[in-house]
Design a protein that fits this description.
Length: 367
């Protein structure tokens, strides 16, 4: 079992509050927590709740959260919304009911499912209570003292919306796309990838901010995507930054999630290659690239040059795309682009050749 996040809260927002409004206690994400035998997690609301309590710690499967994002499509949602303590990766939690198990040297007893309640309809999404039945997480008792630590890669998301939009003639985020603004559409796509926290990179004069996103205003004009990416890395301690540009409306959450998973697991940046160029703004950037990104920014290097250097260093893996995936990287720079791509998406007629994407040789010699 791997741990991808740990959450604690000093008070109850849902438990014991039937007939009352939800509480407002902040849930904190921590890198490490102390487990105390028979008592709970130090600093959490259930610590010393009562003797032999069955829910001294709760575990929740990260894959379940991904399914919620994919199928229920909630508003931008952190895994903390479920009010479970330990977010796990790569384990069957329900198989641990009635069994003793060990995580990072700490022993636990799986007691039963942490059953979802009606509060999930408010905290996560309509339909979440039923959807989570059987997958609500694991309640456990703590059988030995010790510490739990986050021990696998984490990913934050950043939406780049700070371009000047000269050819478009207005802020791209405010353009309409499939019944909502392009900004709202892209925010939902990035949120659906599972990245958290969610950051928005834009200029100070841009007032639009989607729900659940934290603004990162450009400090330097003319620094371009390199500057924005370096700045985003300084705003989070995540291992990976999942990036999406405002003008790539056909990119899917699933495509971003695939790149992010590879970057997180292999500890390299994963960047698509299309039309003879790297596409760094629908990609997954590993923190190991930060030094090279800063160096490129300082010497005013191009993004393409910086990416090529990272490939040579073994810090960037090229994400090869098939024709269908390449078509999803079409960008919109003008009202005509927006109308054309919108019509094609509506008619299901996206075609890589008609969009001008031809197979090109990858940097490593593959096609």
């Amino acid at each position: 079992m791997k741990i991808s996040a740990i959450y604690v809260s000093p008070g109850h927002n849902f438990f014991g509050r039937h007939g009352k409004p939800a509480g407002e206690h902040v849930t904190s994400s921590v890198r490490e927590v102390e487990c105390v035998t028979g008592r709970g997690l130090l600093g959490d609301r259930f610590f010393d709740f009562k003797q032999d309590y069955a829910g001294q710690v709760t575990f929740f499967d990260e894959a379940v959260h991904r399914r919620v994002l994919s199928e229920l499509k909630p508003a931008p949602c952190s895994p903390a919304a479920y009010r479970r303590n330990v977010l796990t990766r790569g384990s069957d939690l329900m198989a641990l009911v009635g069994k003793e198990f060990e995580v990072q040297g700490v022993r636990f007893l799986g007691v039963g499912e942490s059953k979802p309640c009606y509060w999930m309809e408010q905290a996560v999404a309509v339909g979440a209570e039923i959807f989570l039945r059987g997958d609500g997480g694991l309640r456990a008792k703590i059988l030995s003292d010790g510490h739990l630590r986050v021990d696998c890669g984490t990913a934050a998301g950043v939406l780049f919306a700070g371009g000047q939009s000269r050819r478009m003639g207005q802020d791209k985020a405010t353009m309409m796309w499939e019944g909502r603004t392009l900004g709202e559409h892209q925010a939902a796509t990035l949120a659906g990838s599972g990245a958290w926290p969610l950051l928005l990179s834009l200029r100070a004069e841009q007032t639009w901010t989607p729900s659940g996103f934290v603004r990162i205003e450009d400090r330097e004009t003319g620094a371009g995507p390199l500057g924005a990416l370096v700045q985003a890395f300084t705003a989070t301690d995540a291992d990976v930054l999942t990036t999406l540009a405002i003008d790539l409306p056909l990119v899917t959450s699933e495509l971003l999630e695939r790149m992010t998973g590879r970057a997180r697991d292999a500890a390299v940046s994963v960047v698509p290659w299309r039309n003879g160029r790297f596409e760094p703004l629908a990609a997954a950037w590993h923190r190991s690239a930060l030094m090279a990104l800063r160096a490129g920014l300082e010497r005013s290097a191009s993004f393409q040059e910086t990416c090529a250097g990272l490939v040579a260093e073994g810090r960037l893996a090229v994400f090869a795309l098939n024709a269908e995936e390449e078509s999803k990287l079409a960008n919109v720079n003008s009202p005509d682009d927006l109308r054309r791509l919108g019509d094609q998406a509506l008619n299901g007629s996206l075609d890589a050749a008609r969009l001008g994407f031809l197979p090109r040789r990858l940097p490593n010699g593959q096609t």
